[in-house]
Design a protein that fits this description.
The protein has 289 residues and is of the alpha/beta class. 41% of the residues lie in helices and 12% in strands. Strand 4, helix 6 and strand 5 form a beta-alpha-beta unit.
Amino acid sequence: MSAAASTIGPSTATAGPATLRALLERPVAAVMGILNITPDSFSDGGEFLAPDLARAHAAQMIAEGADIIDIGAESTRPYGSQPVSAEQELQRLRPVLAAVAALGTPVSIDSMKAEVVDWALSNGAAIANDVWGLQRDPKMAAVVAAHGTPVVVMHNRDAVDETIDIVADINAFFDRTLDIAARAGIPTDHIVLDPGIGFGKTPRQSMIALARLAAFKHFGLPILVGASRKRFISTIAPSEPKDRLGGSLAAHLIAVQNGAHIIRAHDVAATVQALKVAHAITTSSEDRR
C-alpha cells in the first residue's frame, strides 16, 4: 500500500465503511453519480477532462442529490475504448480527485488497476470500484484489504456468450470473488455486488440479470446496479446514449424493486426524483394517518 496518507476528511479506513452502512440503512436507494474524466467514455467522453469542469460537474451532481461520486479515468465501455496505462490514469486523476473529495461527498475510484486504486484511496477516495471484481489485477484484493475500505465488485466477461445461463455465470463469478476477498482479509460487510449490466453480456442477458436480480440476494450483500444509458436500452427503443433517460429510469426502478441498494447514474437529478417518488408510492399504503 502507498505510504501516502489522505489529508482530506477522515481516514478512508473508517469513513468508507461508515458511509456504506449509513447509505444502506436509508429507506430510499442511494445514488452514485458518474464522473468520467476520459476522452472516450460512451456517452460523455471528453466533457469533463478539464479539472475545473470535472469539479463543477461533481458539485452539480452533489447538489442534485448524489450520495457518492464515482470517478473513472479510463473508459471501460465494452466496444471501442482504448486501454490506458496506470500512469495515464493517474495523470488524469491527480488534478481532480482532491478537489472533488474536498466537496465532502464520498468518492469512489472506478479502476481495474491496483496501483491506481492504491493511490486514490490514499488521496481522498473512500470506496474502490473494480469492474473485474478482484479477478483481473492480482494485487487488487490486497490493496483494498490494506486500506480497509468498501469495494464494489462487478461481474465481467472477456467475451459475450449468448448460449450461457448468465445468472449462473454471475453467481459463479461472485463465488470466486468472495473467495479472493476472504483470503485477502476483506470483511464481507465491506463488499457490494454489481451484476455488470452491459459488460460481457448480450442485451437480452443484461435484461435477464435485471429481471432476476433477486437471484443474487442469497449472498446477503448489497447490490449496485448501473444501467444508465446502456446499449441494451437502444435495442428496445433505438436512441443515442444521452436520449436514454426514460429507459435508464425504468431499468433502475425495476432494479430497486428487485433488490438493488445503490444506483449508478449519469442523470442524478432525474434518478433521485424517480427513486423518491417510487418509494413514496410503494409505501403509501403503510400510512395509516
